[in-house]
């Protein structure tokens, strides 16, 4: 039986604000921030329309979470990875830093109203599930286009396992690189950081 990790990881560029969501800012400010990131080379993969797509995905995440009877405190979630995936975030160009900073938080701090999950990253998960071009057919699974609760992700991992390295060699798993965790209440995080003296790091 495959068990889920007991912690989540937030990756961020050293020297930048951590625990921020671009969608929590007004459009003009958010677009300016994204433009600066792209020009600096830190997010060379950003494309025109990214913010609009990101907001659409977040609206879906929120509505699905509420539909399942949950009570999010935040309108825009904070993003973490279930367990960790240093290989992807440190070696595959997601950040310009060879070794981005990371923050790890115990999963036990969150109840089912505070956290949700997608397998994999929420943007490709929804894109694959709703694709009508046929490009996603080889990779599509029942888990795509789904927002899972804390209880549900346990069953999902027991059935499909953790992503691991299969995405490197198997076309069927090419987009399933990590399980994304969406945090809908940041208060447990700040309490944890305060109690462990992480606030200034």
In short, what is this structure?
The protein has helices at residues 27-40, 50-67, 86-91, 122-130, 150-160, 166-169, 187-195; strands at residues 7-12, 78-82, 101-106, 115-118, 180-183. With 201 residues, it is an alpha+beta fold. Helix content is 35%, strand content 12%.
Question: Please, could you describe this protein's structure?
Answer:
The chain has a 5-stranded antiparallel beta sheet with strand order 3-1-2-5-4, with no helix packed on it. It is built from 7 helices and 5 strands; from the N terminus they run E-H-H-E-H-E-E-H-H-H-E-H. It has 201 residues and is an alpha+beta fold. The chain has a domain at 7-118 and 178-195.
Q: Taking all residues together, what is the mean pLDDT?
A: 87
Number of DSSP strand runs: 5
The geometry reads as globular
Structural class determined from secondary elements: alpha+beta
The major β-sheet equals: 5 strands, antiparallel
CA-to-CA gap between the ends?
37 Å
Rg over CA atoms: 17 Å
Taking strands numbered 1, 2, ... along the chain, how are they ordered across the largest sheet?
3-1-2-5-4
Key structural traits:
201 residues, 5-stranded antiparallel beta sheet
């Amino acid at each position: 039986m495959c068990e889920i990790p007991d912690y989540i990881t937030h990756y961020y560029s050293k020297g930048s604000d951590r625990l921020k969501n671009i969608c929590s800012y007004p459009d003009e400010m958010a677009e300016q921030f994204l433009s600066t990131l792209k020009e600096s080379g830190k997010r060379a993969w950003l494309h025109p329309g990214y913010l609009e797509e990101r907001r659409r995905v977040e609206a879906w995440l929120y509505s699905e979470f509420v539909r399942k009877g949950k009570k999010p405190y935040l309108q825009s979630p904070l993003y973490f990875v279930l367990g960790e995936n240093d290989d992807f975030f440190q070696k595959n160009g997601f950040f310009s830093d060879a070794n981005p900073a990371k923050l790890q938080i115990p999963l036990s701090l969150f109840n089912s109203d505070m956290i949700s999950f997608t397998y994999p990253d929420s943007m490709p998960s929804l894109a694959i599930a709703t694709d009508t071009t046929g490009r996603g057919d080889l990779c599509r699974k029942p888990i795509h286009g789904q927002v899972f609760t804390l209880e549900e992700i346990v069953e999902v991992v027991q059935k499909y396992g953790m992503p691991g390295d299969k995405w490197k060699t198997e076309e069927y798993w090419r987009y399933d690189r990590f399980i994304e965790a969406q945090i809908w209440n940041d208060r447990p995080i700040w309490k944890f950081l305060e109690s462990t003296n992480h606030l200034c790091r």
